[in-house]
Amino acid sequence: MKTADKSSIAIIQTAKVCGSTCTTESDRVSVEEPLEIRLAVTCDGAEVVHQVAVTMRTPGHDSELAAGFLFTEGIISCAADIARIDDDKCNVVSVYLKEHVEVDARVFARHSFMASSCGVCGKKSIDAVRVKRQYDCLHDSPLIAPSTVHGLAAGLRSVQADFERTGGLHASCLFDSQGQMQIIREDVGRHNALDKVIGSRFLSNQLPLNGCILMVSGRASFELIQKAAHAGIAVIAAVGAPSSLAVQLAEECDMTLLGFVRDDRFNIYSGQHRVVLQRS
After folding, report:
1. b/e code 26-45 from CB counts within 10 Å (16+ = b)
2. What is the pTM of this model?
3. Domains in the chain, ordered, with CATH?
4. pLDDT digit string (tens) for 181-204?
5. Is the dihedral of CA 232, 38, 188, 61 positive or negative?
6. Would you name the residues annotated as active-site residues?
């Protein structure tokens, strides 16, 4: 396997069959590699480094991913908790906390491993995912027009550069209430793509994301709702379907959850009060 110029894409040789004819051609595939997230804390004057999680991800924006993961898991609460982040470019990111920051010791006993397909893997129970939210969603904001929602899927697809090359990446994208794109991140793991988006805003002290719309390329799963709610995102739109637990959590968190957002249509599963509809 030969890695392309961008570390998120690799070039491989593949046998392509059309009818009964087989040819050998080059193909682009998404890179999937493990990332070890380490957390360094000061205990009795000594700095101690712990492994917190290993996630299968697409390389790129690893510092954002680590910071976003630590925030959305409720381990740290603000960028000021962080003294520095070391990214050795060899699949390890170490986040060093300031001396005054205390971390629940149970975090270091979790030894969480996450596959790229599921951000909840490795948790002992679903209750472990229901962390205390850092921010609440605003009940009456943002208000969005159906025309804005209809434009989200096209807006997302237009900036999915790596997906266009490989067909193998999920994407999370933030829009403002008028449908203007703000940031996009792609990854083989849908939860990683969202952690990268939230991590970017977390590190630049732009949380909560109360006025934003989150658009995701796949289905709306429980872990995406949990992470979005933790960052104060009140509106999440998905190209695919939500799960029953995602709908339940969105309702509990007063979030607007939209599914099947494509082809000028969408379903509203919760929080209809934020969608400005014409009444007949």
Report:
1. eebbbbbeebbbbbebbeee
2. 0.87
3. 1-31 (no CATH), 33-128 (3.10.20.10), 146-274 (3.40.140.10)
4. 999 999 999 999 999 999 999 999
5. positive
6. 118
